[in-house]
Amino acid sequence: MSILVSIASSHDNPDRATVGWVVAVAAAASGQDTTVFLSADGAWVGKRGEAEKIAEEGFAPLAELVSGFVEAGGQILVCTPCAKKRGITDADLVDGATIAGGAAVVALLAAGARSICY
To answer: What is the CATH number of the domain that holds 72?
Structure first.
């Protein structure tokens, strides 16, 4: 089964962003083919150095969750227009991230991915 975790928060709502990453890490660590789609304010987490600025009390630091997700085999997609709006380029991306448009998300869903949004 493929799982898509859509996260549209980062600095604007660290609690929501962190919970989304906790779920994504759990999915990837349990052997599920897992993709995180970062859109809107969530796109910032796709940029190197931004996750280090976010830590929600009671949770692992966001940077640790992101690296743990990638180490578990997770894939990160950063919304193309969201990245462009924020000046994020391919050269800025964290390891495991790719800039991709909505067509990539639609393809995952059409192939049967289960989705949850934060």
So the answer is: 3.40.1260.10
